[in-house]
Amino acid sequence: MLSSVKLWLTKSFSMKDFGEASYILGIKIYRDRSQRIIGLSQSLYIDKVLKRFHMEQSKKGLLPVRHGLHLSKNMCPKTPEEIQQMSKIPYASGIGSLMYAMVCTRPGYRLCCKYNE
Known about the structure:
15% strand, four-stranded antiparallel beta sheet, alpha+beta, single chain, 4 helices, 38% helix
């Protein structure tokens, strides 16, 4: 059935078959056929965002945020050096970029699910 669909698509559109997709729209697709698992990873995108905002040395991993966390003015930079460093980073853009990854593939870089063949 898959072959007939590919043949029809080839006749209808100008296309090439490159085999199984490993990336789509910057999202890595990974599979474990023995366990029947398919997953998505945005780790490369997150690395690119961190580099764009000069934060590539940041700690990575699952960092759950406590519910009800309140940010305060006491957390703001206080020394002239801290203020200068913080002024170079557009945090709203950085947070928006990370929220895109969160919404697209769920928190924690990965979304995994079992699939039926």
